[in-house]
Structure prediction request, 263 residues.
Amino acid sequence: MADKKTITIAIMDAPYENARSTTTLRLIDLAAKRGYNINVFAYEGAVLQPFAAQTPHANAVHGRSVEEENHFIPKDAIAALMREAERNGGKIDWVNCGLCVDERGATDAIPGVRRGSPADFWQMAEASDNTLVIATR
Amino acid sequence: MKTLSIVENAYRATIEEQDDTIVWIHGAMKGAGADRAVLLRGNAVNYLVQRQDAGGLAFGDWRQTQPPRIASDLAALAAKGVDICYVAEDVAERGIERNELINSAQPVARGAVAELLGRYDRVSYW
Prediction:
């Protein structure tokens, strides 16, 4: 594809903390629908976004069972985005900052997530049409 | 012990949580017997608007089926006996009409907030 784009997104926020996480996933979704190659560098708390041990729960306050609640699980959304990218001829290369992973004990990530370093972010950004940093505040 | 919670930080992670966690925790505490009330101020007054709709989020083949319904959550909280009030000027400054809000929330003038706080044993600022 002549017009295939590659973008790099850096994300820093941990899941369930800020609307920036959802916004980031929505931007990735748009790029995946367009068949872009998408690099994600997860830094600091964002390495927990694809953490494999995330588990849905029932919600007594809502009065819903675990099935009814169908809780938003970021790792599942990320896996769905990876499938969406592949369906459209692109791919998501999700790199978790290794030191950030170690600090948080977040070693168990979903398939498709790899361990990396800030050097990966630099190299991905160099090889991309554009880079978007979604910094925490 | 009567405690008033002031909620100001709005829409922080409501899509992921499928609710506002501070509104939610008050439902849980009320269920455990706590005597709590909620004052919404700042951007959080928008939580009271009935017509807000966060539905439709999808990532690839994943669909959110239970988006946050915070106005309904607050109405449910009020139905459980939690007093819900809001700073009237914060609603007006955002161009929100009172008839857009859930019925069970009561306005408090900004100048009357200090007196309101004085009616409670403790105040928690979330």
